[in-house]
Design goal:
The chain is mostly helical. The protein has helices at about 10-15, 25-30, 65-75, 80-90, 90-105, 110-120; strands spanning about 35, 45. A hairpin with a 6-residue loop joins strand 1 (about 35) and strand 2 (about 45). Helix 3 (about 65-75) crosses helix 6 and helix 5 (about 90-105) packs across helix 6. The relative contact order is 0.12.
């Protein structure tokens, strides 16, 4: 819970004046929400926590699973998400889930790049 300075009620937190804050400077501070008074007024600026992006927490391992390798092999063969889902007898959402994990683990942003990177690494 954030501490509101004395003299400021809860309604004062809703009337916030904006202040430009250097992001690099705010990363150095504690990883909790904090309140910083604005110099121009008696209002308060609430700065959010700069946590780890969700994407970086998806997988702890950079090794592709057997299911991901199979999806990657079918993608290399030019199959669509729907075709891979029919071949593997899973939903299209499951195939998309595996593809997103593959992109993250290989550090790429699309299917063509993932297939090329996998070929370069000798995975498929």
């Amino acid at each position: 819970m954030m501490n509101v300075p004395e003299g400021l009620g809860a309604e004062a937190v809703h009337r916030v004046s904006c202040k430009v804050v250097d992001i690099a400077d705010s990363r150095v501070r504690h990883k909790q929400e904090f309140i910083q008074p604005a110099k121009e007024s008696s209002h308060v600026v609430v700065l959010p926590t700069l946590g780890k992006p969700r994407r970086c927490r998806l997988s702890k391992s950079k090794i592709l699973s057997e299911k991901e390798l199979e999806v990657l092999r079918w993608a290399r063969a030019g199959k669509t998400v729907w075709e891979i889902s029919v071949i593997r007898n899973v939903s299209e959402a499951t195939v998309k889930f595996h593809l997103r994990n593959i992109y993250h683990k290989l550090g790429v942003s699309n299917r063509a790049h993932a297939v090329g990177e996998a070929v370069n690494r000798g995975l498929v």
